[in-house]
Amino acid sequence: MKIVTLVRTEFRRLTATGLARLALVALMLVPVIYAGLYLWANSDPYGNVKNIPVALVVEDQGATLNGAAVNYGTQVHDQLVADGSVKWIDASASDAATGIKNGTYDFILTLGPDFSKLLTSSGTATPEQAVVQLTTNDTNSFLASTIAATVAEKVRLSISQQVGEAAALQFLNGFSTIHDNLATAVSGANSLADGTAQAQTGAASLASGAATANTGAQALASGAAEASAGASTLSTGAQTAANGASALASGASKTNDGAQVLSSGLSSLQSQSSSLPAQTAALAAGAAQVAAGNKTLASDVGVAAGLAQAAADQVPTARANIVNQLTALGLTAEQQAPILAQLDQVGTAINNGNDQVKTAQDQVNQLSSGANQVAAGTQKLADAAPALSAGIASAASGAAQVAAGTQQVSTGASSLATGTAQLATGAAALASANQQLSDGATTLAGGTQQLADGSSTLATGATQLNTGAAQLRDGLVSGEAQVPNYSADQRQAAAATIATPARVDTDTVTKATTYGAGMAPFFISLAAWIGIYALFLIIKPLSRRALTAIKAPLRVVAAGWLAPALLGAVQMAAVYFVVTVLLGFTVANPALMLLFMMFTSVTFVAIILALNVWLGSVGQFLGLVLMVLQLVTAGGTFPWQTLPGPLAALHHALPMSYAVDGIRQLMYGGDLSLALNDVGVLAVWLLGALAFTYFLAGRTTRSRTLRDLRPSLIG
Questions:
Q1: What are phi and psi of 491, to 5 degrees?
Q2: Per-residue b/e over 233-271, b at no fewer than 16 CB within 10 Å?
Q3: Angstrom distance (rounded) from CA 624 to CA 663
Q4: What distance in Å separates the CA atoms of residue 603 and residue 684, rounded to the nearest whole number?
Q5: Which end of the chain has the lower number of beta carbons within 10 A, N or C?
């Protein structure tokens, strides 16, 4: 029998009845339904994440930043709702807690009451991290929890970027302010350096002038001490003159009284000449007393006149010394005028008193001379009383003149006493003022010495200050050059770069257009295995009667492989139609991918055929076990490098790993040489499985049992 005949016979058996045809169609559709439904359901799950219900709980109470109220919780809420990455639903904390338990919400995102406060704490001395609270419940969906973690991380990164950009902008604005302030400081430092240079020069001049002032102050103190001693002497002399003038006034008053008595007596004498001898004797005695008093008065007046003259002579000298001392103190003529005016009043009073004393002295001298003459006359009168009567009229007239003179002397003496009292008062005031001047000059000398010492220290400090100001200016200029001075746009751009210093530029060698397209190679390979496994539920692995009849195991094996291989190729064509047309997945190499899918299917046919021929129903079960094993080792979902060691080793051995890789290379436009390598590995499995089946078939032709002659649904 030929191979085609054997294949045709198998197909007639599979379609002999309506139920058989229905079973064939149903099993043929298994891979189509499996691959189509699964890939359709997972064609774009990430694109539908926006339908996942998520509770958004915002309890933020806001904060204050730079004097302005901010509420970052509200801002994040508005951004999330506008983004729409998931189905955000505003909820209270209690509603959210209830909803995540009963499945209303897949997860909860909570912004606490201190969210803004913690975010703004980054600019304080005690910064704290703000918390985005994520609450999940794996009983709703484990993948939803995974998606929740991804969403929360996106929210965290977005917040970090915004806060980081704001912080960086504030930092850069601070730099700009520092630069502007440094520019102002540089200008001020230049002015300071110029000022300190001038201060250094002025301090040196001040030190020199202070030394000169100290020398003058020392001289002033010495002169003031001398002036104070002279003024004290003047005060003592003036007081003595005042005392003498007072005594003079008292004596002049007595003289006047005596003269008045004399005049009255002479008048009586003139009228009563009978008592002349006795009266002349008395008169002689009185005249002698008057002459003695006048002599004493003349002597006292002479002393007072000498003292007054001495005081008057010292006035110009004292005034000249005081003028020199005031000039040495640095007082101008205008400043000296009030002091000299008071001093001149004292000098004028002294000179006036001296003039009055001189006048009184002349009058007293005249009085003394007259008194002496009176005494001599009265004595003569007493001696020659008889001869006196003739001169009584003349004596009376002279006595009247004496009385008038003594009256003038008394008046002058009183004026002299008043003037010398004023002189004594002025001299005392001058002595006190000179003493104060002396004390002040001494204090001034001490102060100018301190001024000289301080000025020297100031000059040294001014030199150091000038050096420091120059260093400060140079340092500020250097600092200003190093501080960046960005424009507002440059600061904004720099802040954005600092907040997000790196970005990811994705450059793909090949790319699956959707999640479903990414999973297609795995599920197409798995569908190919499932489809062939299902077909062998009704297909006979080998015709044992043919083996008994023709004893040609090669043709029987070829026919046993070819019939399900053709059906498997049809299955792959149908799956390819669903993937490319109904689901719309893009295929880079359509023809090559279809051929590779068919080649994968016929390879799986050879493997499952060998298992069935080898172990029968047990072999069919091993086909299911081998499918499960390849399900986890093919690397269709996660990279195979994530597998445990033993399973990773199986990845390199089992055929589905190469089926998945080959479809990827051809579907996404990958490396055709790698796809050709996958074809080579599958070809090894194909030829190896067929060779093993041929070996089993040959052994069967040499030893058969009655079971080999019975019909069987599964061989």
A1: -65, -40
A2: bbbebbbbbbbbbbbbbbbbbebbebbbebbebbeebbe
A3: 22
A4: 9
A5: N
Q: What are phi and psi of 428, to 5 degrees?
A: -65, -45
Residue 114: helix, strand or coil by DSSP?
coil
In this prediction, residue 464 carries a pLDDT of 85
Residue in 85, 84, 87, 80 with CA at minimum distance from that of residue 162? 80
The C-alpha angle 134, 138, 142, rounded to 5 degrees, equals: 100
Q: Give the residue with greater pLDDT, 33 vs 485.
A: 33
Q: Are 397 and 269 in contact (CB under 8 A)?
A: no
Q: Are 608 and 623 in contact (CB under 8 A)?
A: yes
What share of residues in the chain are helix, strand, coil (percent, to 5)? 80, 5, 15
CB–CB of 189/473 below 8 Å? yes
Residue 552's SS3 state is coil
Residues 6+ apart with CB under 8 A from 491: 169, 172, 173, 176
From residue 478, give the alpha-carbon distance in Å to each of 174, 192, 484, 513. 18, 17, 12, 57
CA dist list (Å): 689 to 607, 608, 611, 696: 5, 8, 9, 11
Structure tokens at 478: 């250097």
pTM passes above 0.85: no
- Check if the beta carbon of residue 410 is closer than 8 Å to that of residue 256: yes
623 neighbors 533 (Cβ within 8 angstroms): yes
The gap from C-alpha 545 to its chain's centroid, in whole angstroms, comes to 98
Could you tell me the two tokens for 164?
């980081």
Angle at 673 between CA 667 and CA 679, to 5 degrees: 75
Q: Alpha-carbon distance 532 to 541, whole Å?
A: 12
* Inter-CA distances, 505 with 160, 366, 502, 508, 658, Å: 20, 138, 10, 10, 30
How many helices (H) does the chain have, and how many strands (E)? 19, 6
Place of tokens 């003695």: 292
Tokens of 102: 């009963």
The CA distances from residue 219 to 51, 134, 328, 456, 678, in Å, are: 106, 94, 8, 21, 120
pLDDT 10s digits, 166-212: 666 666 666 677 777 777 877 887 887 788 788 778 778 877 876 78
Measured CA to CA, the distance from residue 152 to residue 144 in angstroms comes to: 12
DSSP secondary structure code for residue 305 in this structure: H
Query: Looking at residues 355-360, what average pLDDT do you find?
Result: 80
Tokens describing residue 109: 């995102």
Contact yes or no for 116/62 (Cβ under 8 A): yes
The dihedral region occupied by 107, where left means phi > 0, alpha psi between -120 and 50, and beta the remainder, is beta
Per-residue buried b or exposed e for 351-372, using 16+ beta carbons within 10 Å of the residue's own CB: bbbbebbbbbbebbbbbbebbb
135 SS3 class? strand
**How far does Cα 191 stand from its chain's mean position?**
26
What are the structure tokens assigned to 666, written together? Answer: 């051809």
More confident residue, 216 or 53: 53
| CA dist 104 → 99, 100, 135, 337 (Å) | 5, 6, 13, 107
Dihedral sign from CA coordinates of 568, 574, 577, 582: negative
In angstroms, the Cα distances linking 677 to 567, 578, 705 are: 25, 27, 43
The whole-angstrom separation of Cα 469 and Cα 189 is: 7
Spatial contact of 413 and 249, defined as CB atoms under 8 Å apart: yes
**Per-residue burial over 539-578, b = 16 or more CB atoms within 10 Å of its CB, e = otherwise:** bbbbbbebbeeeebbebbbbbbbbbbbbbbbebbebbbeb
